[in-house]
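ugh ok so i messed up the first submission bc i forgot one of the chains. this is the corrected input, ALL of the components this time, i swear. 847 residues overall. if the numbers dont match what u have on ur side tell me asap before i send this to the collaborators (the ones from the other lab, u know who)
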Amino acid sequence: MTISNIPVGKMLTVLLSATLTFALSLNVACAADSKKTMNKSTPLTQAYVWYDGDREQRVWLNPQVVAEFNPGAEGESAMKSAYAGARVVPTKHKQAAVRLWQLDSTAETAIRSLRASHPQGNYSVVLHDAPVSTGRMRALPGNVIVYLDPQWNQAGVSNWLSARKLEIVKKLEIGPNIYVIKTGPGLEALETANALYRSGEVKAAFPDWWQEVVPR
Amino acid sequence: MKYSIRFTCANLLIALALSACGWDGGGGGSAAAPPPLLPAVPTGVSATGRDGNNLISWTSFSPASGVTAYNVYWSTTAGVNETNGTKIPFVKNPWAHTGLPNDGTAYYYVVTAVNINGESVVSAQVSATPAAAAAAVDPLYADQWHLDNTGILGGIAGEDINVDTVWATYKGTGIRIAVVDNGLEIGHEDLASNIAATGLSYNYLNGGSDPTEDPLDITPGNGHGTAVAGIAASRDFNGLGGRGVAPLANMVGYNFLQNGTVSNEADAATRGSPNVHVNTNSWGPTDGNGTLDASSTAWRSAITTGLTNGRGGLGTIYTWAAGNGAPVDNSNYDGYANNRGVIAVAAVHHDGIKSSYSEQGANLWVSAPAGEFCNTRTITTTDRTGGTVGFNLTGSLGDYGDPASAYANGNRNYTRCMNGTSAATPVVAGVVALMLEANPLLGWRDLRLILAQSARMNDAGDAGWIPAPAPYGFFNHKYGFGVVDAQAAVTLTTGWVNVGPELTHTSVLSSPTVAIPDYAPPPAVNIGVNNTIVVAASGIASIEFIEITFSALDHARSGDLEITLTSPAGTVSRLAELHTCSPCTPYNGWVFGSARHLGEAANGNWTLTVRDLAAAETGTFQSWRLKFYGR
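and heres the new structure output, hopefully the right one now
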């Protein structure tokens, strides 16, 4: 697949109707065997961009997987009670901070519903670094990492944050004026990061991604 | 039982709900509702004095109890409670109070349990006094062929890291190793004496200082960090288990792999930086899929910060598992192991041959023992305590504690089955600790140069060994500069004069934009396409590392491409080989790292050759650039 000739501008939600139809039909076809979905190379069509420094990167939405952050006991999860068909995605090396759920329904719809019924929960769509479901996974537990002008003093940083009604979660000691900024989980974090980057006011802005990393 | 109402969100919701039902909080009604239930008081609390630490344990509540955490309060004065004691939140059971002097001081402890409503009253007080352990042989040392390979069971005598003579002088005293992994059981009997003072480790799940793996998580891999720690620095001569490479080094655990966000991986690379000398990492993106997996910008910033500011400006030393994905994967496809700031470590057997899973790469720096799989000889190290967690579970055959095996001499607190570049990497971390004890003023670049210069050629019959400029011996894409030799490395540190400031030179961006001829079957010869960059006036007479940025964005199957870099001296870095990839992502400004040209001069003609060795997909050699680091 060639992707260099696909125009990518703003945060895109490129979703052609033909591919949507195809994807939906795939979803239905895969629903009965969705436990295997993460191991099969299922094509993904809905792409988003983000900015790793100055480099534009693309990720693809997995339409049927939801990441639940800081999950409690599996049996007590709101996901389980709201979606009887929800199954935990088996992973060889699990991270305690996240549980991945495979749904029979659409992830984004499920997340909207869960946020309404269980606002204390932390849910995100799952995205992949390639347009197939075997690509490296990412999700959005919330917050954005911003690289501000290293020449700014503390007052400058505070003024900028205040003007944009942004709140620091913590300072990262990996260079001057690098902060984690508070946002909600899910695509809100991606949208905020992209908006900050495109504003031209920051050196870099990207979501505080959760990423798939494993012990060796 | 003492109750206290603490208004958590849940309490508030309950109160609001009750209010809606007519409950007024108990002030005016005749039937006041009971206050929220706090946990019962922990019982069965005990404290045991050990060498440099005290171990506190209690009877855990069942998961159904609603208890979510435990806190410990301690003091050196009797009568400790939650008001006058030092609070250590979010501790696991058992918990080790580490980094204590063996000076006869008694420590007093109480434990509380926490649930959604708040904290229990304190337990009965217990006390313990740390005391040095009597010297005793390490019963599993004889199995640690990576430390002293006597040639038994198919091994080759001397195929080890040549460390036993070093221990007469250096054992890692005063050197701190951060184990970045999925946990570290700080109370383990063979590790606790070498764990840094309480409060210096970090738990990325709760912000506490106890990175011990979840005692209820029985996933075998959940003992990974504890096994890694034991290889680097389990205590020697305590009559327990085996030995670490640096058996008196000091360790902290950062359980980043339980909460793998970008901010956490950046934090784990720099946490404790002024006092962390070695940061060892046996993790990365998933192996075995042939995919290009980039590191994050924040992580790269963290590594740069560690190199610049760590150890008072001398630079934190990062050791990194090269990857277990061979033959599909190459370490050059890993944006972490590929980074110039890390020492990428490959793995070998007890006969010096490459472990089958160990990835090749032009970025490899050194190799270290790890073995193959557990049915042969792998690495003996610490495992989660007991037979219900970790790698060595009750009933496991052929591992310590199996009465029917040759390993009945051990118990389930240890395993002989640790392998992977995960096992090789802490071996190098331990060697680095010995080197830094011998010469604490080594810069991070100096330490790398010494490792390269002192590494031993293993697998001498392998055709992949290519001479490197003196004094670096030979390089091999399977092994880097060879297997680490602790004695040779420590010897070189003595009297070493640190190299001068690092120079960098970035070439022009060359954009050939030429089609890469698709594969043609024999008798056709697939010569591919070349492009040359002329480097002049770089000022670099001795290269230390090269970054090669490459793009062929319109070639969807990166695995079809073989990519080699040829230096002015005619030496070749194999950056990418024909391989399967699932998924395949195109080269889009991918940065390869190469250690291959260490010691060469930068000026001259550098040629990148790209060949498409699989039919069907085609694309264009769009652009490339070189960045040299050296002096």
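quick check: Helices of chain A lie at 17-31, 78-82, 107-117, 154-163, 187-199. that seems consistent at least. Chain A touches chain B through 48 residues (CB under 8 Å).
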